[in-house]
């Protein structure tokens, strides 16, 4: 497994405009992620996507640093991106060719010799049950089919670390189960954000985010139980923290 290290990494936006103090999207975070399956959970706007983007150099820390196996995301984003594959929530950000087959083939251009690409693409598409849809216009695919397609495109090149931002939001039950099985079988280290608490509970390690801070860091079942309690408490009447009999 790779070693993803946050060393005082923080993200603040807005202060550069000179209007106000700016907003902290992620408070200084120091931790190392070396587990095989890691999930990040938390409310909308808690900073999950911000944290994930730091790992693939899609977002620079405004303080501290983030490294993957010692490679600093700010100093060498190209190396980072060759090792870390990022699957966006919105698959249209990833699919740029007319069909999935072409997209998967295109993604193989740097890693697989030309004459082997077609066979490899077919193999990847088959693994995701996408063979029958491989040559259909991507515009005619359902949202969930596109999401699976985007995952196939990223996995085709065999990144060491796979980062997924809410991979199951658009998927029906059958494809959620397919996704779960696929992720479980992958050799890669997986770091994902999700609102699917079953998916999170099955992970080796789960970070719970709240307002840009990690408020729990535990194994899957314990972190999910903590998050459920936290949400329950937040929904009860009365000032926050005044109820619930402690944490
Ligand atoms: N460039 C930016 N400028 C100002 N605010 C931003 C910027 N980017 C993100 N934010 C804000 O930062 C907060 C955290 O965003 P982030 O996308 O990380 O949340 P999230 O936990 O992924 O939420 P969701 O579950 O809805 O995907 C949000 O309130 C968002 O509006
Ligand atoms: Mg998000």
Gist?
The protein has a single domain, classed as P-loop containing nucleotide triphosphate hydrolases (Rossmann fold), CATH 3.40.50. It is of the alpha/beta class.
Q: What is the assigned CATH homologous superfamily?
A: P-loop containing nucleotide triphosphate hydrolases
Strand order of the largest sheet: 6-7-8-3-9-10
Strand content: 15-25%
Which small molecules are bound?
adenosine-5'-triphosphate, magnesium ion
Count of helical stretches: 8
Characterise this structure:
- This protein is α/β, with parallel strands linked by helices and about 250 residues long.
- It has a single domain, classed as Rossmann fold.
- The chain is built from eight helices and ten strands.
- The strands form two sheets. A six-stranded mixed β-sheet has the order 6-7-8-3-9-10, with helices on both faces.
- Helix 3 packs across helix 4 and helix 3 runs parallel beside helix 5 (about 145-155).
- Residues about 245 have low confidence and may be disordered.
């Amino acid at each position: 497994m790779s070693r993803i290290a946050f060393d005082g990494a923080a993200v603040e936006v807005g202060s550069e405009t000179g209007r106000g103090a700016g907003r902290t999207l992620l408070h200084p975070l120091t931790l190392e992620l070396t587990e095989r399956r890691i999930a990040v959970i938390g409310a909308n706007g808690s900073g999950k996507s911000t944290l994930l983007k730091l790992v693939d150099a899609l977002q620079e820390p405004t303080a501290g640093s983030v490294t993957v196996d010692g490679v600093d995301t700010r100093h060498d984003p190209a190396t980072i991106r060759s090792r870390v594959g990022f699957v966006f929530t919105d698959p249209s950000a990833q699919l740029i060719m007319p069909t999935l087959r072409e997209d998967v083939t295109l993604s193989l251009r740097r890693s697989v010799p030309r004459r082997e690409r077609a066979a490899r693409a077919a193999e990847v598409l088959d693994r995701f049950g996408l063979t029958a849809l491989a040559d259909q216009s991507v515009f005619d695919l359902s949202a969930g089919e596109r999401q699976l397609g985007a995952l196939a495109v990223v996995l085709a090149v065999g990144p060491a670390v796979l980062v997924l931002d809410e991979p199951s939001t658009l998927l029906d039950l059958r494809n959620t189960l397919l996704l779960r099985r696929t992720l479980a079988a992958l050799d890669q280290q997986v770091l994902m954000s999700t609102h699917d608490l079953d998916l999170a509970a099955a992970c080796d390690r789960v970070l719970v985010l709240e307002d840009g801070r990690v408020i729990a860091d535990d194994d899957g079942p314990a972190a999910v139980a903590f998050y459920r309690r936290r949400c329950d408490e937040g929904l009860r009447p009365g000032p926050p923290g005044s109820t619930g009999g402690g944490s």
